[in-house]
Amino acid sequence: MRSMTPLACLLSNAVLAVVLAGASLAQTMRSETVAPSTAATGTVIESRLRGDDSIDYLVAGDAGQILSVDLATPNSSLSFNILPEGSEDALFIGSISGNVADIPLPKSGTYVARVYLMGNAARRDETAAFSLGIGLGGPDVAAGLAGGPDWWAVSIRPGSALNIRRGPATRHDVVGRAQNGQVMQNRGCRMTGSERWCRIRTHGSGVQGWVSGQFLIETEPPTMPEAPEGGPVGNGTPFDATGMVPCAATAGAPMRSCPFGVVRQGPSSAGVWIALDGGGERQILFEGGAPVATNLDAKLTSERSGDVTLVRIGEERYKIPDALVNGG
Question: pTM of the full predicted structure?
């Protein structure tokens, strides 16, 4: 084997030093302690990180207290986990459960809210700005927010609109708006600082998000639509609307009417169930106003005609109006 010259050795060592330095710089882990008094009143931390960097925010609490964390960021690959200090057994995993957490502390000690970029975004060395809300409430606060009515009605000045936000604070993006009297399903409330925020699903449109609790009043459940005779069952979630749509089961067959039920998930997104002859159901998932999946193993295509989408699944055909998917 040919021996390396002194210059080659020097260059090799220099390259190795650069590689090792780059590896150490590529992953920077830092931590910040949130004072108990600051956590008790609630705080918002503005920061940013890059690539493989991560930031640990340390909060000390007592067993039974509620650690509330919510993340706002324009980068969808940024997330956070909550775990006990010194442990990798996460109590909350943001990539699975979302950007809002309310965790009862299992025992007294210090807990970590770890903010990081996931997967490809970290490998691309992306930079992400974020704001992180952190609060620590007593068990009595959680008990006061637990339960509550099943349904809310919006109570605001007529002619104005209530913002529905992606998270429980005004710094989160607006995902929709609700009018006075609009009915919403209660999916739980929490405190952000001194203000109560409630997670909701808007009846009829399916828009989901968070609204300020001061603009909500308890109301009676809305009247749910009745499925037509022989209509679909769906997945157990109450339908937002039911009715009939044009359908054809085979190529060349004339269109007839088939019963449908729809569960909406906000603008242009919905699950549609259509009852078939023989008791089966055809499910079509819409995202962004277009059909993207179905429960039949056949080619799925679509084309637009005015405000109607013609969906083809193998030989089957369905005409789906925009109003069916979006409401209104």
Answer: 0.80
Nearest to 267 by CA among 285, 288, 283, 284: 288
Q: Count the Cβ atoms, other than its own, within 10 Å of residue 271.
A: 21
Torsion, CA 94, CA 95, CA 99, CA 105, rounded to 10: -10
The ranges assigned to domains in the chain are 27-138, 147-218, 241-326
Q: List the CATH code of the domain at 147-218.
A: 2.30.30.40
Q: Which CATH number fits domain 27-138: 2.60.120.380, 3.40.190.10, 3.20.20.20, 3.40.50.1820?
A: 2.60.120.380
Asked whether the beta carbons of 237 and 249 are under 8 A apart, the reply is no
Q: Per-residue pLDDT tens for 5-18? A: 333 333 333 333 33
Edge-to-edge strands, sheet with 78-84: 29-34, 54-61, 109-117, 78-84, 92-93
Residue 275: closest CA among 321, 307, 316:
316
Answer yes or no: are the C-beta atoms of 134 and 61 closer than 8 Å.
no
- How many whole angstroms separate alpha carbon 93 and alpha carbon 315? 43
Pairing of strands 151-154, 100-104: unpaired
Contact 31, 56 (CB under 8 A): yes
Q: In this predicted structure, what is the pLDDT of residue 54?
A: 96
